[in-house]
Specification:
Elements: H1 27-44, H2 68-86, H3 102-126, H4 134-152, H5 163-171, H6 185-207, H7 212-232, H8 234-244, H9 246-259, H10 267-292, H11 301-313, H12 329-351, H13 356-376, E1 399-400, E2 403-404, E3 409-411, E4 414-416, H14 418-441, H15 444-454, H16 456-461, H17 466-492, H18 510-520, H19 526-541, H20 549-563, H21 572-578
Antiparallel strand pairs: 1-2, 3-4
Helix pairs in contact: 1-2, 1-4, 2-3, 2-7, 3-4, 3-7, 6-9, 10-14, 10-17, 10-18, 10-19, 11-12, 11-13, 11-17, 12-17, 14-17, 15-17, 18-19, 18-20
Protein name: Branched-chain amino acid ABC transporter permease
Transmembrane segments: 29-49, 69-89, 101-124, 136-154, 186-203, 215-235, 247-263, 269-291, 298-317, 329-349, 356-374, 420-438, 471-491, 511-537, 549-565
Biased composition (Low complexity): 1-10
Length: 603
């Protein structure tokens, strides 16, 4: 009789803990709470939040949102749409390509932030919470519900990680975004067109905000909405569409820029737009020097001043020291650009053999020398060229092909004022600058700039003439700044030495331009334009920041270096440098051992 022994089965592997949320709620209830909270937040915008119209925006009306209530309404709609997409509602699946919960969390936080900011502002400005109507309390509670539901949704990383990592998981983009299905070319063009129209509407709303509280709320909603779109994978998919339709995207961008003044009823906002384009053009020129060639220039605003003073001297102003000279705009623009180019070569030729901090100190000195020099060229402390501190006033408006830019004109029943005319001129100049920038960046000289930026010693060893390449970058960037300066002189009617300094409370100054490039994203086209728009709009809309602009810029740069060192609009190369990407093509680093190597002869 044979006995058989049974081997006991090995213990089963422990089951990993199921994903759970930070707040102990069933996933079904949490998702329903997000949806219900989004709907309630949207509906609460139709209630009266305060009893008096002393708070800006008139939030006293039942049945119609006003002021900041529209922003709460928008955030509530976004939260509702993301919640419905998470349920798999047909036609909304494109909103969540990654099928993650981070967009729900961020859109809910956007609604919560703008609603509670409004409630707190009402209480502070009107003297207490007694000024809140029941609608204000309902809105505050309703905006809290989707936040609670979003943090109760399960996250894959919260099973074993700590609380800090769990919180990161709620606002982080997944490592892999599923590729989009192939779509017809006309659908891609339609998507780009719709996004351009939405972008124009969002920008127009922001620039038209009439008081600081509304602009702060606008920033809250835009930041959280863009963050949600990023974590959902929508921005990645749109970037792929842009890459496949670059020409159309560029054309739509300029079409939106041209359409902007036709959406305005107040020429003041066109003035803001033309100044943003002027400073954005100068920042784009600085981006060649800093972003592509890697040269830290702290006196770049001086080239803007050279172009402005050159245009003022040949503009026909009665206060110009060159009497009887009145060049047409195309000639004065070329003269200003050429003068800045010459100054760029004269300053760059003896100094560009320096590197790093030493070059930065020399350029800072050049910027200060320019400001002091034009301040002293008044006929007493120096030659009579710039009228010293008084500058050159009464610069006449431009006249192009019989079209006086200083006079309002009716186009299609819409009146374009003086600043709108100059805005359209700057759009044309911006198109030329973008064309020059992109062609130069993609050329052989542009590749040489990037090589110099990454490692000048290695680039020189490979045969690149580092001095010549850097001098070309310096001269080209200076000429673009001078070109923008020629328009700036006519827009402001006068040129004085005060703005052309390293740092100041109002733009332009070198610190402002450098911050615009770093904040927006070095090495990109859209980055400096976005940086210039933000840095110009924030002090313009938030009056309390005008005297503390340098402090605000410093805090913004510190936060940027900590959380997004590559800038808001990241260059792909720099993004790979600053973040772990999990690429498989990076060779594994191995350490040599003490074992003798086996050679072919001894094998």
């Amino acid at each position: 009789m044979t006995e058989t022994t049974k081997t006991p089965a090995p213990d089963a592997a422990p089951t990993p803990p199921a994903p759970r949320g930070l707040i102990p709620l069933p996933a079904t209830a949490a998702r329903a709470l997000v949806l219900a909270g989004g709907i309630a937040t949207t509906a609460s915008a139709y209630l009266a939040w305060t009893w008096t119209d002393q708070f800006p925006g008139d939030l006293t009306i039942n049945g119609y949102p006003g002021g900041l209530q529209w922003l709460t309404f928008t955030a509530g709609v976004l939260t509702t749409l993301f919640a419905l997409a998470s349920y798999g509602v047909r036609g909304l699946g494109w909103l969540l390509p990654a099928r993650n919960n981070a967009p729900l969390t961020l859109s809910a936080l956007g609604g919560f932030t703008v609603t509670w900011f409004t409630v707190i502002a009402i209480s502070v400005e009107l003297g207490g919470i007694v000024n809140l109507e029941p609608g204000g309390w309902i809105a505050a509670i309703a905006s809290l519900l989707p936040v609670i539901g979003a943090f109760a949704l399960p996250q894959e990383r919260t099973g074993t990680d700590g609380t800090k990592e769990a919180l990161k998981a709620y606002v982080a983009k997944p490592d892999r975004i599923p590729a989009a299905q192939a779509t017809a070319p006309w659908i891609q063009r339609a998507i780009i067109t719709v996004v351009t129209i939405i972008g124009l509407g969002v920008f127009t709303y922001g620039i038209d905000t009439e008081y600081g509280e509304l602009f702060i709320g606008y920033l809250f909603v835009v930041v959280f909405a863009m963050w949600a779109a990023h974590t959902a994978g929508l921005l990645d998919r749109f970037s792929a569409l842009v890459a496949a339709n670059r020409s159309l995207t560029l054309a739509m961008g300029f079409a939106a820029a041209i359409a902007f003044p036709f959406t305005q009823t107040d020429d003041h906002y066109a003035n803001i737009g033309v100044n943003i384009l002027i400073f954005g053009t100068v920042a784009l020129g600085l981006n060649i020097v800093v972003g592509l060639a890697g040269l830290l220039d702290l006196g770049y605003v001086a080239f803007l001043g050279v172009g402005a003073y050159t245009a003022a001297l040949v503009s026909g102003s009665e206060f110009s020291t060159i009497s009887g000279v009145h060049l047409p705009f195309w000639a004065s623009a070329l003269t200003g650009a050429a003068a800045s180019l010459v100054f760029g070569v004269l300053i760059g030729a003896p100094t560009l053999r320096l590197r790093g901090d030493y070059l930065a100190i020399v350029t800072l000195g050049f910027g200060e020398i320019f400001r002091i020099a034009v301040n002293n060229m008044d006929g007493q402390s120096g030659p009579d060229v710039t009228n010293g501190p008084n500058g050159i006033p009464s610069i006449p408006d431009l006249n192009l092909f019989g079209f006086n830019l200083g006079q309002p004109h009716d186009i299609g029943g819409i009146t374009l004022g003086r600043f709108a005319n100059y805005y359209l001129l700057m759009v044309l100049i911006m198109a030329i600058v973008v064309l020059v920038y992109t062609r130069a960046a993609d050329s052989r000289i542009g590749r040489s700039w990037i090589a110099i930026r990454e490692d000048e010693t290695a680039a020189t060893a490979m045969g690149i003439n580092g001095f010549r390449v850097k001098l070309v970058a310096f001269a080209l960037g200076a000429s673009l700044a001078g070109l923008a300066g020629t328009v700036s002189a006519h827009v402001t009617y006068s040129v004085v030495p005060t703005p052309y300094q390293f740092a100041g409370s109002t733009p332009p100054n070198s610190a402002f331009l450098l911050a615009a490039v770093v904040l927006g994203g070095m090495g990109t086209v859209a980055g400096p334009l976005l940086g210039a728009a933000l840095l110009y709009l924030l002090p313009e809309k938030l009056v309390f920041l005008q005297e503390k602009s340098l402090l605000a810029f410093g805090i913004a740069l510190i936060l940027l270096m900590r959380f997004r060192p590559e800038g808001i609009i990241a260059n792909r190369r720099r993004q790979l440098e600053f973040h772990e990407t999990g690429q498989l093509d990076v060779p594994k680093q191995t350490t040599l051992t003490d074992e003798p190597a086996v050679t072919k002869a001894g094998a």
